[in-house]
Amino acid sequence: MTASLTLIILMAVMYAVGITVMLERSLTRVLIGFMLVGNATNLLILIVGGENGSAPIVTGTASDAAMADPVPQVLMLTAIVINFGITAFVLALIYRSWWLAQLGDQGDVVPDQHVDDTEAATDATFDAVDLDDAAVQEVLDASNERSDAAAPIEVDPTPPVDSEPKPEEEAR
Predict the structure, then answer these.
(1) Could you tell me which of 45, 31, 130, 41 has the C-alpha nearest to residue 85?
(2) What pLDDT digit, counting tens, does each position of 96-127 carry?
(3) How far apart are CA 27 and CA 96, in angstroms?
(4) For 59-91, what is each residue's pLDDT tens digit?
(5) How many CA atoms, within 13 angstroms, populate the side-chain half-sphere of residue 108?
(6) What is the four-CA torsion angle of 31, 36, 39, 40, rounded to 10 degrees?
(7) Which of 14, 45, 86, 104 could be cross-linked to 40 through a Cys-Cys bond (beta carbons 3.0 to 4.6 Å apart)?
(8) Residue 58 and residue 68: Cα distance in Å, rounded?
């Protein structure tokens, strides 16, 4: 494909308008300008890509000379993905700035109107858990009680004394 004068002029106009619009202070205009510059870059890659040809899928045939160069196609796909990612990021910035502008003086602080309800619900939940723990402890205490008939087992805290010498001591 030879570079068409129409494509070259369209690319130049898209670059000029995109950069001019990007220099505005509005994020929406920056987004529009960036999209124009991204599309102009895709046109530039298309124009510089070279002659048309057959798809470069199978090599080693007689039509290898007529195959198109796959590098410009890959670069154009990469440029489209990068353009999409940055567009999504700028849209998120635009939404965030709009949200902060709607809040006014409050900024990022959103008042919690249901603080008392939340604390009461949390206390009620933990009260039920505390009651369950108390009931479990009562059952454990009742099962560990000893009857008066059973005598407690006494443990002698002193270690036993060996009267016989150890084999190591005999050898010395």
Answers:
(1) 31
(2) 888 888 877 666 666 666 666 677 777 777 77
(3) 11
(4) 677 666 777 778 888 899 999 999 999 999 999
(5) 2
(6) -140
(7) 14
(8) 12
Output the six-digit token pair for 27: 């994020």
Q: How far apart are CA 123 and CA 125, in angstroms?
A: 5
Full DSSP string of 34-94: HHHHHHHHHHHHHHHT-S--B-SSS-SSGGGGGBPPHHHHHHHHHHHHHHHHHHHHHHHHH
For residue 28, give Cα distances in angstroms to 59, 65, 83, 165. 47, 46, 15, 95
Cβ within 8 Å of residue 146, ≥6 positions away: 152
Report which DSSP code applies to 164.
S
